Amino acid sequence: QVQLVESGGGLVQAGDSLSLTCAASGRTFGSVGMGWFRQAPGKEREFVAGINWKGDNSYYADSTEGRFTVSRDNAKNTVSLQMNGLKPEDTAVYYCAASSRPYLVVVLPTTQFAYWGQGTQVTVSA
Fold first, then answer.
1. Dihedral of the CA atoms 79, 83, 89, 92 (nearest 10)?
2. Distance between CA 86 and CA 46 in Å, rounded?
3. Are strands 3-7 and 18-25 parallel, antiparallel or unpaired?
4. In whole angstroms, what is the distance from residue 52 CA to residue 112 CA?
5. Are 77 and 53 a contacting pair, CB within 8 Å?
6. Residue 88 phi/psi, 5° resolution?
7. Beta strands 68-73 and 120-125, pairing class
8. CB atoms within 10 A of CB 101
9. How far apart are CA 35 and CA 107, in angstroms?
10. In angstroms, rounded to a whole number, what is the distance separating the alpha carbons of residues 26 and 77?
């Protein structure tokens, strides 16, 4: 089992950068794929980025590719999301999630996730 806690959210201006961190506990963290999702008010939750268990393969939503970078440190049980060039439309609650199955080669929007954090608010003003 994996417990997840996000941090690093806040209020920034358009064009600024922000880094989110997801701290995980549980012995299986190093074997599971991780994803970042977001949910804006009145909208469905959407996939932002995913990274495989080794950290050598990542996948991004079209809306975030080139601006966001996902990484992980299995020694520290953390996964991070570096967000650059933030836009007002990036405003949302951001969640990290751990995949249901271990040792996935790639983490995609269709990957099944079993564990979720509580989320951290990111607000980007124009």
1. 30
2. 17
3. antiparallel
4. 13
5. no
6. -55, -35
7. unpaired
8. 13
9. 7
10. 9
60-66 contacts, C-beta under 8 A, 24 or more apart: 61/109, 63/89
Residue pointed to by tokens 């393969």: 57
104, amino acid identity: L
Other CB atoms within 10 Å distance of the CB of residue 114: 12
Q: Please say whether the beta carbons of 107 and 51 come within 8 A.
A: yes
As given in the structure block, the two tokens for residue 85 are: 């060039």
Q: Are the C-beta atoms of residues 97 and 34 closer than 8 Å to each other?
A: yes
Distance CA(52)–CA(74), nearest Å, equals 11
pLDDT digits (tens, 9 = 90+) for 36-69: 999 999 999 999 999 999 999 999 999 999 999 9
Tens of pLDDT, residues 60-97? 999 999 999 999 999 999 999 999 999 999 999 999 99
